[in-house]
Model the fold of this input.
Amino acid sequence: MFVRCSTLLRDGPHSFTMSSPYFNQSRSVVTRSGSQNAASLGAKLTDRRRTVTDPASSSAAAAVKVKEEEEEEEAMTQELRPSSALLSTGKCLRRARVKAHPKQEADTSPLSSHSRRRRQLKVEYDKDEGVTPVKTEHWEPPDWKRQLGYIREMRSGRDAPVDNMGAEKCYDTEAPANVRRFQVLVSLMLSSQTKDQVTATAMQKLRSHGCTVENILTTDDETLGRLIYPVGFWRNKVKFLKLTSAMLQKEFGGDIPNSVEGLVRLPGVGPKMAHLAMDIAWDQVSGIGVDTHVHRISNRLGWLKKPTKNPEETRKALEEWLPRELWSEINWLLVGFGQQVCLPVNPLCSVCLNQHSCPSSHKNSPTKMPKAGSPRSPGPASPPKIKTIPKQESAVKDGRTEKEPLSRPASPNTRRRRLKS
Done:
C-alpha cells in the first residue's frame, strides 16, 4: 500500500509539485550481514536539489555529503566485522580441529560450509618404535637347481613317448592355423587317462577322417567312437568332442579360445589342458600344465611345502616359487622323466642321478589294492585255506611238487591187514 505525498521544489518564478509514493516512503536497504539501512532516498534527492539551487552553500553541502558517506561506510564495516564472541568461538574450534594444511592456518575468518568440505586434512600417524616389520621370505626347495640339472641330463636323449607322440606331434603341420589349434585341443582331450601311444593312434585316425570342427559335427557318435577307440573313457569323450565343436563353431568361429578362462568353459577341458593348449597352440605361457607325472614327481622330490592331494594343488604350489621362465619346460621334462625313470610303481632309483638327494629314493612304491570283486581280491565266497602238516605237505618226485592229503585214522581191520603184510 503506497501513501500519496508531494514534494515542492521552487526554482525562481516557476514552481511545480512532484507526487510519488517512491520519494516519500522510507526504503530499507538490506546488507549482506542482514542489517537494514534506514536512510531515506527521498531526503538524499532533496539535499542534492538544494545544493543545485543554492550555489553559495554547495561547498558546505559537499563536505556534509562526504562526511555522511564516511559514516555509512564505517557503520557497514562494523556490521560486517565479526563480533568478539564469534572470534572466541572460532579460536576454540580451531584448537579442537585436526591439524590442517599450513597455508590454511593463517586464514582466521569464518568459513562457509562449502569451503569446509573442500579443505584437505593432513592425517598423521604415530610411528611405532621398536616394532620390526614382518618379512616374507621366498621359499624354495633345497638343492632343486641341481636336481633339475640332473633331470635335464637324463632327458637329453629325447626318446620318451611324450617326445614323439605328445600333443606337439599330433597335429597336421600343413593345415590352416585354426585347424592346427583345434587338433592340439582334441589331442589333449583324448590324452586324459590314456597313454601317448594310444592317443597318437586315435589322432592319426581322426586326421585321416578329417579332424575339423565341421567334420566332427557331421560325424555320428558311433563312427566317432570307432575312430578314437580304445582311449580311456571314449564314450564320454565322444560327447565332449561333439559339445566342444558345437560351442567353438557358435561362439568362436571355429577356432579355440585364446585364454584360460575361455578354454576351461569348454566341455571336457580342465586347467591342465587349458595351460598346455595356451603354450602349444597360442605360444603363450599362462601356467604350469600338471598331469599325473608332474604331480607324482614333485611330491617325491620334495618340491612342495607340504604334500598335495591332486594336480591342481600341485600346480598352485609350484607356481609360487618356480621361476616363470621354467613353466613351459617343466611339464615336458617331468613327463618324460616319469615315463622312463621315475615310474609310478617300482621307480628305477638305482639309475637315477638324484638318488642321493631325493627324499623318496629307494622306497617301495605302495601297491594298489585290487578292486572288490576282481579275481585277485579275496572275496567273501572264497574257500578257506586248509592247513597241512609240514611233513605231509609236499613230496618231491621227478622235479615235481605233489601235495598229499591228510590221512584219516586207520580202522582196526586196516591195522590187522598192515601187520599181516
User: Anything to note?
Assistant: The two ends are 166 Å apart (CA to CA).
